Amino acid sequence: MNLTNAQLIEIAIAFGIAITAGWLFKKFLFPFLFKLTHKTKWKADDLIIENTGKWIVSWCILAAVLYTLPLLIEVSPFCKKYEALFYKIIKGFFYFSFTAITAKVLASLLEIRSKQDDSVLPSTSILGNIIKAIVYVIGFILILHNFGVAIAPLVTAFGVGGLAVALALQPTLSNLFSGLQIIASGKLNIGDLVQLENGQRGVVTDITWRNTVIKTAPGNLIIMPNSKMSDSVVENMYLEDRHITFFVEVGVSYSSNLEHVEQVCIETAKAILQTEEGANKDFEPFVRFVLFAESSITVRVFLNATEFGFQFLITSSFIKALHRRFNEEGIVIPFPIRTVYMPEEDKKTI
Question: Looking at residue 334, what DSSP letter applies?
Fold first, then answer.
């Protein structure tokens, strides 16, 4: 291969311009375009610009390769022999890059849609992965077609092989379709607070192709196979309403004026609901006397939080405030008391 000085300079200039243009596009043009698209309500344009920007330098370099390839073919027998293959490789690279962009954009659009309406499409990794897999399979077929590979026999082979794989991976496929069933039912969404049959409680953080992931209050993760999750009795506390009503229990002396106790409890509860983060300010707290205990009358004060996690802070603040008010009002929270009666003959022996 003998390239003239003019040809070498032309090739160097072509690659220099391509690299410089790609860097300028990525550094200045795409941030400007992203700012423009970010102002629109349509989110797809943001995703297209963001993901296209990741490939722009590679595309510019590939454009330089396309420009210089005819020069190399003229002077190189090797390049001339494999001219068709080179063009197919370049075309295949473009197919792959567009496939990657399409998969990422569609998966991200699905996630955005699910955040806007959880009841339609919960935001789970399983749906995004399925969308990506479908797009990559289509892209792979296009790339094979570009290289002249017959698609029909390949699809037939995949069908026969897929049947054998399906028989071998029955538990995995069972979890996959159980996960899709859970999502399609709309009864279990990301962010829902659930309680399992064994009493474990937590927030659903993801539904993958194999597992449902639940995060407990201490921060631990429960990893439950989708097939087992779909067959279990699960209490969803967020399906209808995220607000949660809970009670704080306290005992008061038998000598207390219960009407006064009720009034103090309600006043304190209202004050806490108006000031604490996560408290439902529109909720009307109420009191129920529930038990004649051994040394006190048991009182339950009912409050309401906007989400499950806020109840603990509200409970702590309410207990401190109620204890202070009881001391101010002279309401006694008694210690456990036992009265012992002894026969006269037993007293003489003491």
Answer: P
Whether residue 122 is predicted with pLDDT greater than 50 in this model: the reply is no
Stretch 258-284: mean pLDDT: 93
CA angle 151, 152, 157 (to 5 degrees): 95
Looking at residues 157-176, what average pLDDT do you find?
65
- Cα distances from 275 to residues 268, 313, 314, 320, 325, in angstroms, run 11, 12, 10, 14, 16
Measured CA angle at 144 (ends 141, 145), to 5 deg? 85
Q: How far apart are CA 303 and CA 318, in angstroms?
A: 10
233: left (phi over 0), alpha (psi -120 to 50) or beta: beta
Sign of CA dihedral 70, 73, 79, 80: positive
Cα distance between residue 305 and residue 281, in whole Å: 9
Residue 249's H or E segment, with its range, is strand 244-252
Nearest in space to 207 (alpha carbons), one of 234, 231, 242, 180: 180
Pairing of strands 244-252, 297-305: antiparallel
Per-residue pLDDT of 168-208, as tens digits, reads 556 777 777 787 777 777 778 888 888 888 888 888 888 88
- Among the listed residues 104, 214, 306, the one whose alpha carbon sits nearest the alpha carbon of residue 112: 104
The Cα 124–Cα 190 span in angstroms is: 7
Token output for 270: 């209202």
Please, which pLDDT band fits residue 124 given cuts at 50, 70 and 90? low
Please measure the distance between the N-terminal and C-terminal CA atoms of the chain and give it in whole angstroms: 120
